Amino acid sequence: MAPTSISEPVNARSRRTRATLLAAAHAILKEEGFEALTMTAVAARAGVTRRAVYMHFPTRAELVGALFDHVSAVEGLAESVAEVWAAPDAAAALDAWAAHLARYHTRLIPVDRAVQRVWRLDPDAAAHRERVVAEKLSTCRRLADRLNGEGRLAAGWTAESAADMLFALISSDMIEALVVDRRWSRRRLADHLALLFRSTFVAGDGTPARPAAPAH
Amino acid sequence: MAPTSISEPVNARSRRTRATLLAAAHAILKEEGFEALTMTAVAARAGVTRRAVYMHFPTRAELVGALFDHVSAVEGLAESVAEVWAAPDAAAALDAWAAHLARYHTRLIPVDRAVQRVWRLDPDAAAHRERVVAEKLSTCRRLADRLNGEGRLAAGWTAESAADMLFALISSDMIEALVVDRRWSRRRLADHLALLFRSTFVAGDGTPARPAAPAH
DNA sequence: AACTTAAGTACACAATGTGTGTACTTTATG
DNA sequence: CATAAAGTACACACATTGTGTACTTAAGTT
User: Fold this and answer.
1) Can you give the pTM of this predicted structure?
2) Interchain CB contact of A113 with B (< 8 Å)
3) Who among A172, A181, A182 is closest to B173 (CB)?
4) pLDDT 10s digits, A102-142
5) Cβ separation of A181 and B174 shorter than 8 Å?
6) What is the 3-state secondary structure (H, E, C) of chain B?
7) pLDDT digits (tens, 9 = 90+) for B142-177
8) Nearest nucleotide over every DNA/RNA strand to the A10 CA, judged by C1'
9) Does residue B156 belong to the interface with chain A, where contact is any CB pair within 8 Å?
C-alpha cells in the first residue's frame, strides 16, 4: 500500500510502464522462479529496455520490494486478513488465521522467497523488512492478546510467547514442506493448522469445537 | 556420511586439500554468510587457486552439497538425533526432538539456507535433496509411529499427518524467526517447542508432564 | 498547435561472478 | 627415480548488475 519510493509517479506513461514491469516480474516469478527474475528478463517480458527498468527500480532489491507490495494488493492480503478479525471469538479467529495462511500464503511462496533472499543480501531492503515483520508480528500479537483477554490462553504461554510462536509459524518453509513436498491440499493444511493452533494455544480445547477432527 | 561423488579421493594431498576447502567454506558461511561463499573466496581462504576448487567441486552446487555433509558430521547430527531415540517413551522422545531442534538447527541455519538455495536453482542437486528429505521424513515418521504405537496420538492426527507436520516444523524460517527476530534463548525455544509438540500430538497432555510450564 | 520536459531508447562501459581450456610445475607414491 | 595425479598460472567465454550519455518519443502545458 505505502509506496516504497518517496516521489509519486508523475507521468501517465510512467505509471503504465511501472505496472507492466511489476506484472511481468510477478509472472516470471510464478512461472520460472526467482532465479529467472533478472532485470533483463523483466525488461524483455514487459517489452521495454533494460535501462528503463532501472529508471523505475534502481536496484533489483527495490524491484523485489515493490513486487511484494504489488502482490499483496493483487492477491488481496488485507481482505484475507480481515476475515480473521470477523471471527466471533479468539478460538474462531485462530481457525480463521489457519485458513488465511492456507489460502494466502500458499500462493505467496515464490514472492516470499524472493523477498527473503533480497533481505538477506541487501542492507537497503532492511526498512521494508522491518515494516513487514512489524505488521505480521502485530497481527499475531493481536490474536494472542484476544485469546488472553478471553481467558483462554493455554497454560505455559504468555501473550508474548504465543504471539512470537504464531509469528514464527508464518513460515514459507513449513507451508512449502506440506503443500509441495507432502502434497497436502489447502483444505487439509487449513484443518491441521487449525488443530495445531487450537490444541497448542487454546486452554481446555483438547479436541477442537469444529465439525469433528479432520480426517482427510 | 555417504560421499556425494562416486570416486574416492586418491591422493593424500587431495584429501587434505578437500578438507581445507570444506573448512574454509564452513568458516566463510558462518562468518560472512552465503553471499560471501564464492569459489574465489573459498580458494583464497584455503590458500589455493580458484582452479583447484573446481577440481574438487565442479560446480558451486556440489561444493554446497558436500559442505552440508561435512557440517552434519562436524556438528554431530547423528549424536544429536541419537538422544531422541534414547527417550523412554514417545512423549519424552518429542521433548528430546524439541531439544535437538533447538540445539542442532539453531547452529545450522546458514548452511541450511545455502543448501536450500542451491536446491532451488540447481536440478543436479536434486538427488542430494531427496536423500536429506527422506532422512528427515523417516525420523519424523518414526516419532509419529512410536506415539501411535503407544496409543498416545492425539485426536485428529494419523501417524502420516503427524509425521508430515513434524517434518514441516523442521523449519529454518521458524527457528530463525524465534531465535534471531524474537531473540529467544535456546532454552526458551526448546521448552516452547516441546510444549507445542506435546499439546498438539500427545493425547491427554493438556499440560505437559515436565517441571511445570516454561515461564522464561 | 507549439513548446517543454519527463520517460524511454540505443548504445557503450566497468565490475563480479561462474565455469572451461591448456601448458607448466609440484608432490605423492609404486 | 619414474610416473601419474594434483595443483598453478594464465587466458577465455558468458551472464548479470549497475552506470553513463546522447538521442528520440510521448505526455503535459500554455
Assistant:
1) 0.91
2) yes
3) A172
4) 999 999 999 999 999 898 888 778 889 999 999 999 999 99
5) no
6) CCCCCCCCCCCHHHHHHHHHHHHHHHHHHHHHCHHHCCHHHHHHHHCCCHHHHHHHCCCHHHHHHHHHHHHHHHCCHHHHHHHHHCCCCHHHHHHHHHHHHHHHHHHHHHHHHHHHHHHHHCHHHHHHHHHHHHHHHHHHHHHHHHHHHCCCECCCCCHHHHHHHHHHCCCHHHHHHHHHHCCCCHHHHHHHHHHHHHHHHECCCCCCCCCCCCCC
7) 999 999 999 999 999 999 999 999 999 999 999 999
8) C6
9) yes
